UniProtKB/TrEMBL annotation:
The beta subunit is responsible for the synthesis of L-tryptophan from indole and L-serine. Belongs to the TrpB family. InterPro entries: Trp_synth_b-like, Trp_synth_b_CS, Trp_synth_beta, Trp_synth_beta/beta-like, TrpB-like_PALP, TrpB-like_PALP_sf. It is an enzyme of class 4 (lyase). This is Tryptophan synthase beta chain. It holds the Pfam family PALP. GO terms for cellular component: cytoplasm. Its cofactor is pyridoxal 5'-phosphate. The gene is trpB.
Amino acid sequence: MYKITLSEKETPKKWYNIAADLPVELPPSTQTEEGHQIDNLPKLFSKYVLQQEMSTERWIDIPKEVRKVYKQIGRPSALFRATGLEKYLDTPAKIYYKREDQSPVGSHKLNTAIAQAYYAKKAGAERLTTETGAGQWGSALSLACSLLGLDCTVYMVNVSFKQKPYRKTVMHLYDGEVLPSPSNRTEFGRKILAEDPNHPGSLGIAISEAMEDAFNDDSAFYTLGSVLNHVLLHQTVIGLEAQKQFAKIDEKPDILVGCVGGGSNFGGAAFPFMKDKLSGDLDCQFLAAEPASCPTLTQGEYKYDYGDTAGLTPLMKMYTLGHEFVPPSVHAGGLRYHGMAPLVALLVNQGLVEGRTVNQTELFQAGKLFANTEGVIPAPETCHAIKVAIDEANKCKKTGEEKNIMITFSGHGLLDLQGYDDFIEGHLTQ
């Protein structure tokens, strides 16, 4: 079977909250002596997502209004089998990929954007602010705000703002306001620009700007596209659907691979399966693929750190390269983040998830091969997961093992063609 689908009636009605089943307690976010970041959270986020952020309830209802929009944007998404790639690799492994790229904005990000916009409007917001790296999250929130009648302001990492002009066009089509970060709009942005007018930006800086903007506007809330518990909660529709799809063909994944920047698409796919692993009902290896240029899981330190550069967030226990770390200007802008979702970080620390690094030329080689064999052009971020999946399939070829490998196909690369062109022309660095 090449494509395993679900009916609209099979769209999940509840999100899965892994906080209920963790092997050890999640270290809490903490206040700092210098500020009152935790006290500020109700000013920055709607009360509804803050309740989800702190919840240890295993299952949380998805509002009917959110499920209605999920169906409108094409959920449930299909699970495909990559038979062309399998044939090329001559591997006994079966490779599956969950098609989050088929959403209107081309990525998984809408799953939480819709939920966060819904809860913000319910709490009385008129505008949402956010950051974006490659532009997928900014596009998703712009569309969600457009569908739900909210204004949207997006601080886009400067290097991606220049590398990916058509992401800006998508956001503008959805009536989103897009600013290069660091920007002159905020005090923190002006401070960074005064030190370096050509600063490439980072997700940490863009987060600081979006938070400052929301904090100074009583009609606005801040939203985050990854990292936080409630964001990964909303993304579990990916894994919950995939569980049903594997059940339809009487199979289970032996290896689950996803790319990680902040951890949302990986966590969303992995957590429902991790529940089965923790209960002893599934024997599965979980692999988190990250850029060699931003090796948070493989070289970062597991400690408390800020989620942004200015230090406006509470301190979170996570793997981090330091909140002032500025990654190289690689094309996988969505993965250029110094930290990691605390939930994903805890599972790595407990030995339940393994980090793998991929360099820039390797990921584009994998993306080109996938395009040649499957016809789908992956986002540079997604290519990290594809490269690791190819490595695992090649191991199966050597051992003769017939493993099922699942890739979280987080987004398409049709707006990332400059990166592919640079690769084809031989202009990319490692």
